[in-house]
Structure prediction request, 886 residues.
Amino acid sequence: MTKDTLAPPLKTAPPPPSVPLPPAAGLVTFDVSQLNIWFGVNQVLKNVSLKIPSKAVSAIIGPSGCGKSTFLRSLNRMHDLVPAARVEGRITLFGQNLYDDDVDATVVRRRVGMVFQKPNPFPTMTIAENVTVGLRLNGVRKRNLIQERMERSLRMAALWDEVKDRLNANALSLSGGQQQRLCIARALAIEPEVLLMDEPASALDPIATAKIEELILGLKKSYTIVIVTHNMQQAARISDLTAFFYLGELVEFDKTNRIFTNPAKKQTEDYVTGRFG
Amino acid sequence: MATLHHRWRKIKSSIISALCLLCATIVIVPLAFVLFDLLKEGASSLDLSFFTQLPKPAGEVGGGMANAIIGSFTLLGLAALVGVPIGVLGGIYLSEFGQPQFNAVVRFAADILNGVPSIVWGIVVYAIAVVPMHGFSAYAGGMALGFMMVPLIIRTTEEMLGLVSNNYREAAFALGIPHWKIVLHIVLKTANKGILTGILLAVARIAGEAAPLMFTALGNAGWSHKLSEPISALPLQIFTYFKSPYADEKRQAWGASLVLVLLAISLNIGVRLIARTRAPHLTK
Amino acid sequence: MNAAAAKIKTSPPAEIILAPPVKTADGFFKFLTWLMAMLVLALVVLVGWTLYRGSRPALAKFGWSFFVHANWDPVTEDFGALPFIFGTFACSFLALIIALPLSLGTAVFLTELAPQRIRQTTITLIEMLAAIPSVVYGIWGAAVLIPWLMQGPYPFLKRTLPFLPFFQGPIYGVCILSASLVLAIMIVPIITSISREVLRSVPDSQREAAFALGATRWEVTKLAVLGYSVRGLFGAATLGLGRALGEAMAVTLLIGNVPQITKSLFAPGYTLASGIVMEFAEANPGMHVSALFELGLVLLLVTLTTNVLAYLLIGALGSRKPSAH
Prediction:
């Protein structure tokens, strides 16, 4: 897999991560059971249960306010940062309960990475510094290790060729689509096992969106990906499984082509055929 | 009739606009005079000996204010050592950790501190530092000036940190970086130009103060060899020299005043330059 | 390439190379920053307590009569704060009377009338006014302003308004009027700046509505802006007053420093701040120093009350947005 044999960058198969994912727990990444979430007095998620499989793309769709992002953020304990949030239920990552008392949320977030809707590279840092910040601020010192991870992450994010000559430029000098790929590289650099994506392409133009989608298709060989999207066609294009949420409840979770061609619930069918949205 | 009244209304409006312009002009006029007089009386005093020599004994012509210049910078440095940690760290607490009620109380306290007259700081620090230490010192002077900086720095730090978008904090949390590292290496770093601006403004504010130093640093006719000794400062020296009957010392007081005003103006310009290079990402 | 691939495979996994988070580091940092915030509160208490402790002997000896007694004699240890209180208020209020119309006019000019370029320049110039240290105002006032006043304006006032008690009596130069004039110059920047903020906070829609009704420029300002802002402008004035009350160095050089109460503005006087400046260094430890501490306590209470009142009027008490100082 040398540079000379590469087709145009986007078609590159990403290099494998350094460590094979735990095989035994390999089939199911997240086992969610009876998840309920409140913000203050409002119950935002009601009794959600599903199993998210490994090395596949699971899409979360549903109308605005249905709880998609809330569900996504419970998978990496981001609600810990919101004092008004209350999470009840059980979520296990490869068999280990995420919300156990002795589990450190910081460690969870190193294994479950997240990319946000609006690209947010750190504005005072260069491209190289942005990619490696997760390593450097977490105590990694070895220069060559950092260098190698940086290159690998940028390749995996299909950004390496575009930035390799200006790694020391400020991250904000990149276009929106490039910044988002930079954020993906940043998340991948600390080698999570899971990548959560919260509407990663909704702030981008169609061409940048297409690049991100190609990227995701390539990444799923090595990572479990959970993506929230309000764009049903996108879900249909890139995901293996799709979950349809409505008003805080999980209505249906199944193989993508089943959801979009022959859903089991009428509500799902109404949504995917555009009767409401 | 209606047109006549309308014309009168317009005239009245123009008159009042002219009056407002007049107000603005009147207000600026003293500035012109002060600057002009500073240059007229003080520029001639700024020769090499002014910056390199010590004051001569009373009555003798010549000498300089080298000790006052060094002393002022020393005191500003000590003040920063006191004011910056308390102000910046306190501002960090308010912005990153605090709760609404506690924050309101601290901000109120900061506003109270801001309104404490400088002479009051002088006698307070006299009581808490000079008396126990049995002597005037640069430490006491730096402490007084440093305490004066705290309310300014804590407010601007809180404001600047608040301007840093939450998106960056979220992204950093999602990378599994510990909270304190997020605050120091990402949030603070993003806001550092604004915080630096606040610090410089605080320094500019206290650089010309004499009242807090009169009973703490006291002043020194010669060099201070230890920070536990009294130390000279430009504002103090200006005050002492101006009250003296000797024309030569009065002249030097003008020179020192010119230096002080130039210092204050350049600090303000420096702040403006830094503010202009602030990246757009800081406006939420 | 093989070596590179092999290297990739043996690179240690994430959990091992990333340093485990130290729980106590977060706690320590939060505690440290909290401590600093608490220090701000502690400083307030420290200032009040130190002044109180220093004044206790005088408080005990003189009690409430301290505030109404007009004599100040260190030799017989007969201390009364009335001349200082009188001088402080006389100077500061007079300064406010002079500065307020000028500052308001300037603020209106800056927010409503001035084109961008002129506005920026004027603002910069006013900031330069604020940057001049108090002691420099003092020596300028004493060396330049007072001689000029004594040559022209003061005799003119005395000639043309002799029936007013304010302008009677000998003209010494250093006097309450001189101190007030320079104080006025010194407080113009802060009153202007706060007034500007107050005026600017009036939404443009108010102005547009008034314009749409056919109002002239001034009528727009009067109806839409000033009416809305009266409380805030009061606050700006009060803030300026607070600044004037605490002013020490300039006043010391301009007011003559004689503890007396007169009607004449041409007579020297004393303020709380300038009294401390003049006498603290040589005061006998004991009752004299304690009386001076009590002057400081009075000064603190007076300025604090004024400032709190100002913040309440502006609506900025304990609020997030810091007001310009």
Remarks:
- Chain A touches chain B through 26 residues (CB under 8 Å).
- Confidence is low (pLDDT under 50) at residues 1-25 of chain A.
- The first strand of chain A starts at residue 28 and ends at 39.
